[in-house]
Design brief:
mainly alpha; 8 helices; 64% helix
Length: 154
């Protein structure tokens, strides 16, 4: 499995302090999802990989601490600042079309599974793409993981 960049204790504490309505475990899960997202997106050439609103809120908090965020981005595979683009999954699918959206979402799953392992039930709280593939395509989490494992091996 791929190692993610670490956050300093100060940076992590700042993020935790902004979400007193969430447990520390939930915040840590969201931070991990954001770091995975940033790792993948830093080399994904503009691919849309949607997080849930709650995980996206954590990304916003990472961004506003600019000194820390610039350092974090410099340690990602792409090595440069990761900009935030605000578009919801429904709006994105409406612009691109459902078929193309599904194909694009499915195309990055093998990379995610190869780098960070299978998605868990807890990951559904952080990755909007999992809910979309389940609701719009009828794929279960097990099927998504199997697709990821099968294509990651090829």
């Amino acid at each position: 499995m791929t190692a993610l960049p670490t956050l300093s204790d100060d940076y992590r504490a700042i993020v935790h302090s902004r979400f007193d309505d969430r447990t520390p475990d939930v915040i840590e899960s969201q931070i991990r999802a954001v770091l995975e997202f940033l790792h993948i997106a830093s080399n994904a050439d503009g691919m849309f990989i949607p997080l849930t609103r709650a995980a996206d809120d954590v990304w916003h908090e990472l961004i506003v601490e600019t000194k820390y965020y610039f350092d974090l981005c410099s340690r990602l595979p792409g090595g440069s600042y990761m900009h935030h683009h605000a578009i919801g999954i429904e709006d994105y699918a409406a612009q691109l079309g459902k078929r193309e959206t599904v194909q694009q979402f499915l195309s990055w799953i093998p990379l995610r599974v190869r780098l960070f392992g299978e998605f868990t039930a807890d990951d559904k709280a952080n990755w909007a793409v999992l809910e979309f593939l389940e609701d719009e395509v009828g794929l279960s989490l097990e099927q998504i993981n199997e697709l990821g494992k099968t294509h990651a091996a090829s």
